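Lab meeting, item 3. Inverse folding demo.
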């Protein structure tokens, strides 16, 4: 775990403000991490994401493995150089994408065999192969391959998937350690375009050395408290981790069940390591999770919703295409520092959406991630002042009580 550390800076109840140190910089927590699936936050330039206040972003190993290829990303300098994002980065293993392709994949103890829906080619996704892919891509934090199942599955199915995820975690750990010790396999020769700088894989004697990375395990077990506890116990017996993720939530379960799962997991997780809640990204869910001891969050919903005209405000979600906004001269949110709020009014933003001008979806997506990043920054500040509980309760009451005019 060289280059990684986590310190708790302030607490209030189960909630905490912390600092996650990585080789590419520090992440002040709690923090929302925008999702850049293809090494790009959809529709936004990296400098816009940085200016929105993001400290850390995500990419997806499955998608980058298929295009342009993990070895190509490595040859082009690794994920940071390839994407032009120079802060901390995380790659999800792509387990969710693989398991969502029910018609195209077959799961066994060995791993997952699937057909690429782009060209029909057959691929094998094993814990060992996923570690090789993620180590080629080169993010700071990489995720294990876990077995995902549909939300609402019974106890037996949830237990089976949780236990297999633990077995796959051990295989991930062994391969991760081997690559740390022995280095990555050489990349087959790929020539740079005439006149361009050489590829990293061509002239660097130490290029095969694996970069400093941290492997995060993923807690599974559905909404069953005993399975979540067993998953955490198995994870902690398997290794000393730089951080732990909680997955398998926000997949259709009741919010009360999701919040109960936070309450189950947080007290059992190491206090001195960051807790990453995967795939949760609505404002009220983030504050509920922070109050229950979670630190890091990601979700594609904020940018996806923005591209389709729905934005977050302190008074709830607003659907901007509604005719009521046709003559609305107000900003989306008076307190928001994003370009959509500081330069334009709702009437103009609505006009961009209904006329299908590309600027509209970009501005609204940027607003939504800025809103969540700013919200997490405010939560951190309130924690440091000892005001989180009162502030959070008031904020949630307003968000949930009012609707768009």
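The presenter then showed the designed sequence:
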């Amino acid at each position: 775990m060289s280059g990684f550390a986590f310190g708790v800076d302030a607490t209030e109840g189960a909630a905490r403000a912390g600092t996650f140190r990585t080789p590419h910089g520090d992440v002040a927590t709690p923090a929302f991490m925008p999702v850049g699936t293809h090494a790009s936050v959809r529709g936004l330039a990296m400098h816009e994401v940085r200016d929105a206040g993001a400290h850390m972003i995500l990419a997806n190993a499955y998608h980058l493995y298929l295009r342009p290829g993990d070895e190509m990303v490595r040859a082009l300098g690794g994920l940071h150089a390839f994407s032009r994002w120079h802060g901390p980065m995380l790659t999800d293993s792509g387990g969710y994408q693989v398991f969502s392709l029910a018609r195209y994949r077959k799961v066994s103890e060995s791993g997952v065999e699937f057909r690429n829906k782009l060209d029909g080619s057959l691929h094998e996704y094993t814990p060992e192969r996923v570690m090789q892919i993620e180590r080629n891509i080169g993010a700071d934090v990489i995720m294990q391959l876990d077995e995902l199942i549909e939300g609402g599955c019974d106890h037996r199915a949830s237990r089976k998937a949780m236990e297999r995820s633990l077995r796959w975690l051990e295989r991930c750990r062994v391969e991760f350690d081997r690559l740390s010790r022995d280095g990555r396999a050489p990349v087959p020769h790929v020539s740079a375009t005439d006149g361009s700088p050489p590829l990293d894989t061509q002239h660097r004697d130490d290029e095969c050395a694996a970069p400093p990375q941290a492997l995060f395990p993923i807690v599974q077990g559905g909404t069953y408290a005993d399975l979540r506890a067993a998953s955490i116990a198995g994870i902690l017996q398997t290794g000393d981790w730089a951080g732990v993720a909680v997955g398998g939530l926000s997949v259709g379960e009741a919010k009360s069940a999701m919040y109960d799962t936070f309450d189950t997991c947080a007290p059992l997780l190491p206090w001195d390591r960051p807790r990453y809640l995967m795939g949760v990204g609505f404002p009220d869910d983030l504050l509920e999770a922070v109050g229950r001891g979670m630190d890091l969050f990601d979700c594609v919903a904020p940018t996806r919703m923005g591209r389709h005209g729905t934005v977050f405000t302190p008074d709830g979600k607003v659907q901007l295409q509604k005719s009521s906004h046709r003559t609305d001269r107000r900003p989306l949110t008076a307190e928001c520092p994003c370009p959509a709020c500081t330069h334009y009014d709702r009437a103009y933003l609505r006009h961009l959406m209904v006329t299908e001008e590309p600027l509209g979806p970009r501005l609204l997506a940027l607003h939504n991630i800025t809103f969540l990043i700013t919200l997490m920054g405010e939560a951190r500040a309130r924690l440091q002042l000892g005001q989180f509980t009162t502030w959070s309760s008031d904020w949630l009451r307003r968000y949930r009580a009012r609707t768009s005019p």
